[in-house]
Structure formats: structure tokens, C-alpha cells
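Lecture 7, part B: from sequences to assemblies.

Below are the input chains for today's worked example.
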Amino acid sequence: MTPAELRKLSAEGKFTDPTTGYCDGYVQANMVVLHKEYAEHFEEFCRKNPKPCPLLEVVGPGTSLTSKLAPGADLLDTIPRYRIWKDGECVEEPLDVRKYYSEDLVFFLLGCSFSFEEALISAGISLRHVDEKKNVSMYRTNLPLEPAGPFHGEMVVSMRPIHRSQVAEACVITSRFPEVHGAPVHVGYPEMVGIDHVEKADYGDSVDIKENELPVFWACGVTPQNVLVKAKLPFAITHAPGYMFVSDLKNADYATGV
Amino acid sequence: MTPAELRKLSAEGKFTDPTTGYCDGYVQANMVVLHKEYAEHFEEFCRKNPKPCPLLEVVGPGTSLTSKLAPGADLLDTIPRYRIWKDGECVEEPLDVRKYYSEDLVFFLLGCSFSFEEALISAGISLRHVDEKKNVSMYRTNLPLEPAGPFHGEMVVSMRPIHRSQVAEACVITSRFPEVHGAPVHVGYPEMVGIDHVEKADYGDSVDIKENELPVFWACGVTPQNVLVKAKLPFAITHAPGYMFVSDLKNADYATGV
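Predicted structure of the full complex, as C-alpha cells:
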């Protein structure tokens, strides 16, 4: 299935699965949609915290059609599942958000670590959550974010157990993807960043860390959703976790200096 | 002082200090000198273990003059201090080795981590042993080397404490210097590589590892000396630790993909 086909089926309500594992090689993006009055601060927040909030494209106000990630794709229905947020709480998980459209909405598309996982696997670095067909393990940390307006909080990280002999290489490979979280924010010693239960993920699924493996932590795209909850905005739309916007760009387009 | 001046003074017996801190920006090299009958296996050993034994130049047999690292420099007297090894034991530390020259000697010049330390410091990653004017901390490990002929053993590593927020960057920066040890061979958890006393270095000086720092381990140029001792060759020459060959090449010449 091509990204265009997946988006068309999503718009018709015929594709309703998580997008992990579909359209290998293509960039998938997180989405956050806000009224214009909050958009400026949110964009500033992303620029100040590029590792957890790597901005790939800003769409609107006045349109819901992307021009960079998939020219002409409508962000109101091409994602398989959305979340509607009111006062910091998720109130609905609809298959499209056409009825919520207004001229003053701004759509933020943010990078996702799916993009660098492909590069890790190509380099022979196996990823347990992929092998076990699980969601990646994610944790709240005590790593502070740079605040902007109502947006503030701590970073959420994803964790992948990596064999000790491949940790440096994993840092090097993912550093080549600065627009999709980049190099790890922390290696080993979970307690140093405020994680006291690495065996139990805060979000996603838990995986074993085996002998001779280190837990390696990357900034995670769940961070902005977490920040949205804290900001308790009257209204926001996001993608539903795991149900991403599938773009026409290749992951390789986001690799630099290779 | 230029590298040529330092080498000239060394040859005249007027420069007899360790070379650390001299000729900033220029590549310094470890040296191993063997009779031809062992040279082929030693070269194979270096090629099989490029991280601890990064070969920069092979000189001879039939000459002691370098052609790549410092064209025309004589390896018999341009290093400030040498070691003479007999049957695996250091028997002398002379200022030159002219009297030991024979037509069948082969000179190996090997990369040294001084080269990437400059790049780390330039990136704002401070190195405690440099700040405290100490020798870097080095440790024996249980990391096996690929054997070749009489040469075998385990890797020696150098350790630098790095703040947790800079570990990934340190991996990325040093990965750009594949000919001078490259990226770390291990990060954190000293016991995973057979080091059970990280607070006490096996070679060099010990330094503190402070809160929020991880010990980061790189393959070390002391490895070949250690292997030589084990091989108990009837005769070998090396530089004395800390008294390196100072070349005319710049460290930046060994950076790739920057």
C-alpha cells in the first residue's frame, strides 16, 4: 500500500488500524491542532525544544491541506484516528475531524522516531519492541522543557535496549536524523533522569533489558501531547497514539551527513 | 614550538619531556618497532583490531624515515624518549635508538586519542584529566582482541567521565575520527567489560566521576604495548608512554564526514 492509498482509505473510513508497519520507508508524523491564539506559543515551544518536538510542517490557518509532507493531503480525514481534547481531557476518538474545522485552526506536524528505527535496523541493531511487535516503551522524566506561554513540563522519552557494543553506533546513526528526535538524550542509568521503574513503561509496552544491554533513551513525540494535557486548553485535536499521518517523504530524506 | 622544532630538539637530546600539551592541533602517534619476521603478523593484528590499533603509517624495512606523517623525519631519534623491550620486559628508556637500528626493522605508527580530545573540548565537552593536568585513566578489560600469530590478548581502554547530557554527542564527535580510535567501545557500567574498580585506573591517573556523569570508554593505544609484553618477543622498541611521535599532520585531517 502506498501512502496515498492509505490516506485515501483513511479518508473513506476504510482504514482504521495503527499505522506502525505500513508504508515502510515513508515518514510518519505526529499531529497537534490548535486555535490560532495558542499556535504562536506552541510553535515557539517546539522551536525551543526541538528534540522532543521536531517541527516538520505547519499548515494553516485558513487551510487543512499539507504542502510539504504530502502535497494536497487533507489533515481533517487522512489520519486513521484522531483525538479531540477539551480542557486537557480526551473526550472522543473519531475517524475524521471534518466537523471541527474552523478557519483559525493551525496544524502542526511533528517528527516521529519510526524514521530512525529503520536506519538502526538496517545497521544490524535489532529493536526488541519491533521484534516482539509491541509499541515502544515510553517514560516520563525529570528533564525540564523550555517553557513558552501556557506550554511547559518535562520530557517524555522512548527507550530501546541496545547491546553494549552497539550503543555508540546507535548514537551516531540517530544523530543523522536531527528532524526526527536525533541522538539519544540519555544512555543507561534510568534513575539519573527520574525514571525509577524502567521495567514498567509509563506509556506503550514494557520490554526486557537483557544482560549486556543498556537502556538508551530518545526524546519522544508523546511529549507535546503530555504538555497539551498540562496546558488544559479549551480545545485541541491530535492524532490518536499509533495512528499517524503517513507522508509522501522518505525517511532517508531526513538523514543528514550520511 | 612547531612539530619540526620539537623533533629537531628531541634528536639533539634537548627535548626530553612528555609531548602532551605541545604542538596543539597536530597528530601525535604511538610507535611499535619489530624485526621483519614479526612485522607481518603485527600488521595483520592491527588490521583485525583497528579500534585499539589504528595504523597510521608503516615505515621500513630498509629505512627509518617517515614519508606520510612527517616526510623525512627519522624515527630513531625524533621521539623524546623510547623503550627497549627484551623477552617482554622493558630493559631501558633511552633518548634515541640509533644504535639499535638494523635493516630488517619495521616501524609502526599508530593513532592516539589526543587527536579527538581536541575536538571534544572544542565542542564544549570538558575533559577532567586535561583540566587537572593528569594522564588519562586507562583500564584492562575482558574485551577480547582478534589474534594474529603471536599477538593476542584483551583490549586496554581509556576512560573519560562525561556529563550525561553530552554522552551521545561525545559518541558522535569521536566517531568522526575512525583512524584515532573512533567512537567509544563502551558507555557506563564498567563491570560489563570486566572493570571492577573504575575509581582506580590500571594505567595513567585516576579521576573522579561526579554526579550526573557516566564513565565513557574508548579503545586505547596502550593495547599494542600490552600485547607486545604478552607475546614476549626477543626484541622490540616502542615510544615511552606519554612521549609520542609528533607529526606534521593536523588532527582535523583525520576527521571524516564533518
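Note for the exam: Residues 36-48 of chain B form the longest helix (13 residues). Keep this in mind when comparing with the next example.
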